[in-house]
Design goal:
Strand content: 5-15%
Order of helices and strands: HEEEEHHHH
Strand order of the largest sheet: 1-2-3-4
Helix content: 25-40%
Largest sheet: 4 strands, antiparallel
């Protein structure tokens, strides 16, 4: 696609992932609203997912099911396996430098990043993250096109003068 087509398209270029990801385990990861957050599949129940997050400022940890039940593995001072999986996949998607910078820690790999966090349980709005994940899935079902998507028209276009 030529650059002029990109400028007219109602799509945004996405940064390529650093390494291939296993979407079945962590299908959604984002750095938004001052948190690294995402959706993590349950290891024991195919119908259950967890919404996990780490606050960028306080390193507050949050993990609950899509039905707002708290994760039993998240205790003060200890991260649950869902947050570990979220951090690992975030490093694969964004790179350790970006994730560590966002969380304001020094780390050279996912393991060191996990060890640098010293947060405690801190509630976070799981419903908003889960809703964005569901919206993300809906966009993946659309056929590929450079035609505008009406509900995304409010995004400002770069280089357009009015």
């Amino acid at each position: 696609m030529e650059s002029s087509e990109w400028e007219r398209a109602s799509v945004v270029r996405v940064l390529p992932t650093v390494a291939p990801r296993k979407l079945a385990k962590v299908p959604f990861v984002e750095m938004a609203d001052g948190r690294l957050q995402g959706v993590v599949s349950s290891g024991s129940d195919i119908a259950r997912v967890y919404v996990s997050s780490v606050s960028a400022k306080t390193h507050g940890l949050s993990c609950s099911t899509n039905n707002n039940r708290p994760c039993g593995g998240l205790n003060n001072g200890w991260q649950c396996k869902h947050i570990d999986a979220l951090l690992t996949e975030a490093v694969l998607q964004y790179g350790v430098e970006r994730v560590a910078g966002f969380l304001r820690v020094e780390a050279i790999d996912a393991r060191e990043l996990t060890g640098a966090l010293r947060g405690s349980r801190e509630p976070a709005p799981a419903a908003a993250v889960f809703s964005r994940f569901l919206r993300h899935l809906a966009y993946l079902e659309l056929p590929g096109s450079s035609a505008p998507i009406p509900e995304m028209q409010w995004f400002p276009a770069t280089g357009v003068r009015r």
